[in-house]
Amino acid sequence: MANNWAIAIGINQYQFFQPLGCAQADAEALKDFLIVEAGFLQQQCLLMTDTSPPLGDRSTYPTKENILLLLEDLAAACWQPQDKVWFFFSGYGVNHNGQDYLMPAEANPEQIEETGIEVRAIMQSLLVAELDIVLMFDINRAFANKGNDLVGQEIIELAQELEIPTILSCQPEQFSHESSELGHGFFTAALLEALRSHHGNTLEGLERYLSLRTPELCQHYWRPTQNPVTVIPSREQDILPTSEVDEDREESPMIGSREILAAALPAPSLHPNPQINYSAWQSTTNPDTDTNMHQYGNKQTVPISSHSLKSSLSSTKIKKSKRAGNTWLSNPLLLWSAGTMLTLGLVTVVYLRNQGGLKVVEMLSASTKAVNDDTETEILPISPDTSYDTNFIKTSPVTLAPAPKSQLPSSISANSQAIKHNKARLELAKMSLRPNQASDLSLAIAKARKIQPDQPLYQQAQDNIQIWSRMILDLAESRAQRRQYAKAIAAAQLVGKDESIYPQAQASISLWRIEAKQYMSNKTLLDAANALIMPGQASTYNRAIEVAKKVAPGEPGFEQAQKSINQWSEKILDIAIKRASQRQFQAAIATVLLVPQESSAYKKAQQALQKWQQQ
């Protein structure tokens, strides 16, 4: 049974922006409603505000690092496919170079890319986890406005493309306001009213209520009008759980918030990547797709067609030429002519071979040439604008040498695969997508799947899908080697079920989940060991070493444990040497005996021990 989660972030006090008055109250009120009235479990509703209590020893202060770390930890250890997740953010938002950013507490308007959180990164990280998501943003603040940069426009476009239910507190050209009389922002006040009056069980019902009530509240309190924007996917879905779901969920064991973050992964980077050129996708959108804005009162709603990402690279069908009947067999003259031409052809081939004047295309690479073939082959560089044709390979006159029969087909196959890989990479470049980003490769695959079998580019699209899927899995494996298990699993989950490497991807995911748990457990041990250390006290380093030894060889984190053990052993030896320099030889001997045998400092410690025992 799917679980219900919520992350509510509200920031009043900023280091570089004017303070807000109600953002924290908005987040707290939404969290309270979801727990008390909607039946969400308290340990699955996480609050991040200026004064929110820590989860165990983990701070919930809404900095960029804490927010991204929380998302990574939940994706790695807690969330399962089809879980429902509410993500609410009330604070400042900024548009920079066409990209929307959420501003955490320490965000600097002069360093937006470094200190802000790119909304696209959040959307993609939630989407690849296969969650049912509801995003709510109250970020259009007057003091963050920068000229013509309208925050929210990119969010709308991304939500349309990715079909993510999303609500913005107002249109991009408007500002979001709050009221000290209400104790909330106008958007959140209307949102809470809708949820409490049971108008928010579905996205459509919530949209209808917000479109009327939000501008009404603004007018009543003499504030500029704001009209929320709702992106509604083509599929219907409830956004609040039913009572039946709640009962089932309460019976299942859950992980508490403190346990969730007690042994967290180090956060793999969710820092912004270069922007995907979505216009390249939209330019090939099916013209029948309805992307018009429909108005409900003053409310802008963006319904999404299920074909929003559909493109038709070519709708021209292959014209099959009519084959003439085999009437030439009945014509003796034609038969005689064909026989004569065949005979002349064979004679010419034999003659030219004996004369050594035949030119052949050298297809074999240097690594697969026959031993007695000393000819040189020059392959011209392939231009992105040229088709892959053997005419681009230079030829040189050679004397024919017999090559092993098994050699030529394998070489041609390798060359063919290289050409296919080059074509696949060129297709990515044409769509302004990056080969080192799993999400971009997934978007390319989604587009290629739209090509039908009766279209000319179908076979090339299928080849590209296989290559891109392999590239995704390679990226995932690379991330797993760097202990970025959450990102590795998220990437591997993008491999489609109908791909040949799907079983391999699933096996890797299962292995990485086990390794991630081991890594979290071992990291917790190392953190606990570090907490024991008191500088200058050798015994505390020794206790830390004993704790670190619990990380077993071969487990994730073992290398780090060994590195820590060696460092702490060096510290013990330094303390012993210092005591010996003060002629405290007995204390130095007792200290140096704490250096463990398996450490890099053990040999030096034994040499020092023998020297001091002779004093």
How would you describe this structure to a colleague?
By secondary structure, this protein is an alpha/beta fold. The protein is built from 20 helices and 15 strands. It has helices spanning 23-36, 64-77, 112-115, 119-128, 153-162, 186-196, 203-220, 243-251, 257-262, 278-282, 332-355, 407-430, 438-448, 458-481, 485-492, 502-532, 538-548, 558-581, 585-592, 602-613; strands spanning 4-10, 45-49, 84-90, 92-96, 99-103, 117-118, 132-138, 166-168, 178-179, 184-185, 229-232, 294-296, 299-303, 359-361, 395-397. The strands form four sheets. The chain has an eight-stranded mixed sheet with strand order 2-1-3-7-8-11-13-12, with helices on both faces. A three-stranded antiparallel sheet has the order 4-5-6. Strand 1, helix 1 and strand 2 (45-49) form a beta-alpha-beta unit. The longest helix is centred in the C-terminal third of the chain and has 31 residues, at 502-532. It is flat and about 90 Å long. It starts with a strand and ends with a helix. Residues 243-330 and 353-407 have low confidence and may be disordered.
List the helices and strands and how they pair.
Layout: E1 4-10, H1 23-36, E2 45-49, H2 64-77, E3 84-90, E4 92-96, E5 99-103, H3 112-115, E6 117-118, H4 119-128, E7 132-138, H5 153-162, E8 166-168, E9 178-179, E10 184-185, H6 186-196, H7 203-220, E11 229-232, H8 243-251, H9 257-262, H10 278-282, E12 294-296, E13 299-303, H11 332-355, E14 359-361, E15 395-397, H12 407-430, H13 438-448, H14 458-481, H15 485-492, H16 502-532, H17 538-548, H18 558-581, H19 585-592, H20 602-613
Helix pairs in contact: 1-6, 2-15, 4-5, 6-7, 12-14, 13-14, 14-15, 15-16, 16-17, 17-18, 18-19, 18-20, 19-20
